[in-house]
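S1.2 Input.
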Amino acid sequence: MSSDTWLVAGLGNPGPGYAHNRHNVGQMVLDELSSRVGGKFKSHSSRAQILEGRMGIGGPRLVLAKPMTYMNLSGGPVANLAKFFGIDPAHVIAVHDEIDIDFDTIKLKIGGGEGGHNGLRDISKALGTKDYIRVRVGVGRPPGRMDTADYVLKDFSKDEKNDLPFLIDTAADAVEAIMSLGLDAAQRKFHIA
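S1.3 Output.
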């Protein structure tokens, strides 16, 4: 296994109709990371768009990946890429939307439950472990009695769109911190009491 390579998977649904949905915030974060790394995403046989690079000069090697399957089938592409590049699950980072966290908040963790997130459930199944890192990007709970699936498949509200660039930037910073400082130090930095 490669000890200095990280696989960062931005979860979402493929196609322009989903591009700005709350469910696709993970892929939005990967777009920010790709602008920092430089380069363009390319198709890979794992059913993902990938970008290989380094985080800064002499920084860790990384593979940014956007699964091109629907969210609920994210596991196959992520597990196939981990195998292809020889990346241990402990160096897999899944960036995803999280309804149990307020909008504009980032939480970092390794392992644990999937909280009803079918994309994470599929990754855990495909990797054969829950012990991979999650960057949980808060999108808030649906208002009133709105169905959760309907809520995450809607675009961010007008007010949220004003703050969305800051949220995406912070999530990208958190991914970088995990790779450069380790999970514990990144949690201390990004978990605001």
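S1.4 Remarks. The first helix runs from residue 25 to 37.
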